[in-house]
Write a structure and sequence with these properties.
- This protein is of the alpha+beta class.
- The chain is built from 25 helices and 35 strands.
- The two termini are 68 Å apart.
């Protein structure tokens, strides 16, 4: 029986004998192709040759390419380990022709290699050919079928549809029919009961595709039409793992000598035996697959990270750690110990593994150690979530909770689903995806953030002292680097801190960390895993030194005023609008506050003024803060404390009370409402159906706003010559302006009518239709108005305008109903000529416009449209 290494070697030697240049595998991680993160097919490294972007150095080639499919279109990750043939990293054996040999050689050599060299039983082979596509004018691939008929009986040659048997690089570009080779490895009894042809492309685990031969003979155009390529290309791909399985007579890829040595070491390290338990078998297969992917990615220069390709690798690594932890009892780093056996089995073909051995081991171990710490907390959290869900009489875990596990603890959805399934529960996948999509939308508006690993100096958690103190003597527990928009910052966690981490709508504090004589500014404070994380721009010289943490007191006092004002406004809104008002969101900063609440119509100016007056009355009463920390939640409810709907609270809560305003709140508040000074509502808007938003300012900000308002009124009076009645004067000016605009519009309409008449009289006849042409200065809106009127008045009209206004050229085409029925399409006519004015546009069959940059090209563009009409 041939070993995997011997099989790979035989493939390369066979095609070398056919004149193919043996090309080394390209890196699995792609750096120069913005459309791909990883090499996912053998053709990736030849893409530029196929597209003609580079000069080819050879016309025939063969290789064994390492590939990765774990995200995007080819997402096999969820299947890996659970079936017998899906993998994240796999090898693709391929042979290529760039304008050299074609179908005859490709098929005959495939047969020669499989049957004559590898000695596969031809009775078990099936081939598929493209059935054709009448709508695209592509016939059945009779040429390929005729070649196959020399080797296979007709009932072993099947027609395949466009999905299975027509390959294309993308929406446009080289493409063509393909011919798949399938192998039936079932028992003789099974074959006698049901022909293998009935199972081809039916996802049967023992009737599998082993080779795909693509005949690139067309070029897909932008309009989806097909043109013949001047030089044909052969692109073949044979799954190495599947081929080895077939030759070694196995029913699973994982039973071959590609994976069994790794699985053997996994068994030895874990004290478990493969083949005795389904769950541990799956775990061993997952780990055996994933260690290859992780190691090759690191060897190719892609380290695990929280962004793009690095995140994919981190996700795969963490999935392996999770299976080792849960099913193999591995509570300490484990994967890195598999590197020696991986190098032993694959290092000969891929020497980069041995060359990068030290780096791979170090990176994997550090990643494992980091994730194992997170995993412990994450598993505790998901267990708590499941208990809470069951206590509520439910079996479906909230999608938001699943997303939090993903976002905070690195639990991919499939891992959370796996844990839930073990307890007879499911996940709200739609809710998870909704939260994921929301995060992606946020990510599109900000650069990706890359987080370094935590450097732990001391164990422990943070004590928040910011309710009572503005500074604290403390020490650094841990820190790490973060990179965003090419800017590196650092996150620091302290043993004790007065800094409030952003939460519940209240932004994080700013201030300083003083290490001896060195003062480090804190630019923000975030909350992560319920810890205050201090953001600094640089690390101190000695981060292990004692530190004094001091907040910016001026900002904190302003923020506390705004937070207390938010509570007051919440109470007043309920009094004025009704008890249906519930908080739906908030933002509290030192500069202002924002409060979202349920209400089904716009709050009137009178209601807003009433709310504002009531709130300021509470300010003038100088109501002292009544705070209750660690109060039993039932007792808090008896006090009338308002809890946010959907928010989860512990058994003990913090109650913040200002007179009649009683709320559960963990934020920072001013000691007395009198210190707020004044509250002024500056905006009221809608943010969603049934949700309104008010924005307000307090104290010094109100004073500054009143000053600005007074200055504006003074400037307006000066602008209108200090008119005694400013409002009346402005109203008269606006009315005069409206009257003038009306006169201008009437004048424009009159001129458009005159122009329309002249153009209609100057129409020329082409193919029985009246073509109305104009090139000159005219606003685009006027051109549109005239064109619509001309087509409405003449069903045979074809209007072609090339106009320019303030340096901007516009093409306008309108087609009368009869002209449209005759096949003239305004949108197509405009699109074809728009490039001549360096622009683009379109519209509908009866009317279209295109704007551009090159007014000098208007004449050529109009002539191009006229030529298209005459054609």
């Amino acid at each position: 029986m041939m070993t995997a290494n011997e099989i790979r070697d035989s493939f390369l030697k066979f095609f070398a004998s056919k004149g193919c240049t043996i090309v080394p595998s390209a890196p699995m991680v792609l750096k120069g192709d913005p459309t791909l993160m990883f090499t996912n097919a053998g053709m990736n490294q030849f893409k530029d040759i196929i597209l003609g972007n580079v000069e080819k150095k050879f016309s025939r080639a063969a290789d064994s390419q390492k590939c990765l499919r774990a995200s995007g279109k080819h997402n096999d990750l969820e299947e890996v380990g659970h079936d017998t043939y899906h993998h994240t990293m796999f090898e693709m054996l391929g042979n290529w022709s760039f304008g050299d040999y074609f179908k005859e050689e490709a098929i005959s050599w495939a047969w020669e290699y499989l049957v004559d060299v590898l000695k596969l039983d031809p009775k078990n082979l099936y081939a598929t050919v493209f059935e054709g596509s009448p709508e695209e004018g592509v016939e059945r691939d009779n040429e390929a079928a005729a070649i196959w008929e020399r080797y296979l009986p007709k009932d072993h040659i099947l027609d395949g549809n466009k999905h299975d048997n027509f390959w294309q690089m993308g929406d446009t570009g080289p493409c063509g029919p393909c011919s798949e080779i399938h192998y039936d490895s079932r028992s003789d009894e099974e074959k006698a009961a049901l022909s293998g042809r009935e199972l081809v492309n039916k996802d049967h685990p023992q009737v599998i595709e082993i080779w795909n031969i693509v005949f690139m003979q067309y070029n897909r155009m932008a309009d989806a039409s097909l043109e013949k390529l001047p030089a044909h290309v052969i692109d073949t791909g044979m799954g190495f793992e599947r081929l080895v399985r077939t030759l070694q007579g196995k029913t699973s890829n994982y039973d071959t000598d590609i994976f069994q040595p790794i699985i053997g070491v996994i068994g030895n390290l874990s004290g478990l035996k493969y083949g005795e338990n389904e769950k541990t078998d799956i775990a061993m297969r997952v780990i055996a697959d994933h260690i290859r992917t992780i190691s090759f990615a690191i060897a190719d220069g892609q380290l695990p990270s929280n962004a793009k390709a690095g995140y994919v690798i981190r996700r795969i690594l963490r999935r392996a750690v999770r299976y080792a932890y849960t099913y193999l009892g591995q509570k300490e780093a484990f994967l890195y110990k598999l590197l020696p056996i991986l190098i032993e089995t694959m290092g000969g073909a891929y020497p980069e593994l041995k060359a990068q051995n030290e780096l791979i081991v170090k990176v994997i171990k550090e990643e494992e150690d980091s994730f194992l710490r997170t995993l412990e907390n994450g598993i505790k959290r998901i267990n708590a979530i499941m208990e809470e869900t069951k206590a509520a009489g439910k079996t479906v875990i909230d999608g938001k909770e699943a997303f939090t596990l993903f976002d905070t603890y690195g639990f991919p959805l499939d891992l959370t689903e796996l844990i839930a399934r073990e307890s007879g529960m499911t996940i709200d996948a739609e809710g998870f995806q909704a939260n994921m999509q929301a995060q992606k939308e946020r990510a599109r508006n900000a650069a990706a953030v890359e987080n370094g690993d935590w450097v732990e100096l001391h164990a422990g958690t943070t004590e928040f002292v910011g309710y009572d103190f503005a500074e604290a003597e403390t020490e650094v527990l841990r820190y790490r680097s973060i990179k965003q928009k090419n800017k590196t910052q650092y996150q620091v966690v302290l043993e004790k801190t007065p800094f409030y981490g952003e939460m519940g709508g209240q932004v994080g504090d700013k201030g300083t960390l003083t290490f001896g004589e060195e003062v480090i500014p804190v630019v923000d404070t975030k909350r992560e895993n319920n810890l205050a994380v201090h953001i600094i721009e640089k690390l101190p010289q000695d981060i292990t030194a004692p530190v004094v943490a001091r907040i910016n007191e001026e900002d904190r006092i302003a923020l506390e005023c705004n937070h207390t004002a938010t509570h007051i406004l919440d109470y007043c809104l309920r009094q004025v609008l009704g008890t249906h008002v519930e908080q739906k969101g908030s933002l509290v900063t030192p500069q202002s506050l924002r409060f979202d609440f349920s209400h089904f119509q716009k709050v009137t100016d009178e209601e807003l003024r009433q709310v504002e007056h009531m709130a300021n009355d509470m300010v003038r009463q100088a109501i002292a803060l009544e705070e209750h920390r660690n109060m039993p939640i039932e007792e808090a409810k008896k006090m009338g404390a308002i809890a946010l709907f959907g928010e989860k609270y512990g058994d003990e809560v913090r109650v913040v009370k200002f007179g009649p305003s009683v709320e559960l709140c963990g934020g920072c508040h001013i000691s007395n409402t009198g210190r707020i000074g004044m509250i002024r509502i500056i905006m009221e808007t809608s943010v969603a159906a049934g949700v309104r938003r008010i924005e307000a300012i307090t104290g010094k900000a109100v004073e500054e706003a009143l000053d600005a308002q007074q200055d504006l009124i003074r400037d307006l009076k000066a602008l209108f010559n200090n008119a005694p009645n400013l409002l009346q004067t402005i109203q008269k000016t606006l009315q005069d302006d409206a009257n003038l605009k009306k006169q201008v519009e009437e004048f424009k309409h009159e001129k458009e009518q005159q122009m329309k008449q002249k153009l209609a009289e100057a129409a020329t006849t082409i193919k029985g239709f009246e073509v109305i042409k104009f090139i000159g200065a005219l606003e685009a809106d006027s051109a549109k108005n005239i064109a619509f009127q001309l087509r409405a008045e003449n069903a045979k009209a074809i209007v072609v305008f090339g106009t320019e206004f303030q340096g901007r050229p516009t093409l306008t085409v309108a087609v009368g109903d009869e002209a449209k029925e005759a096949g003239f399409n305004a949108s197509n006519l405009v699109k074809g000529a728009a490039k001549l004015i360096q622009g683009g546009g379109g519209g509908q069959p009866h009317f279209a416009q295109a704007g551009g940059k090159n007014a000098a090209g208007l004449g050529d563009a109009v002539n191009a449209i006229l030529s298209a009409i005459e054609a």
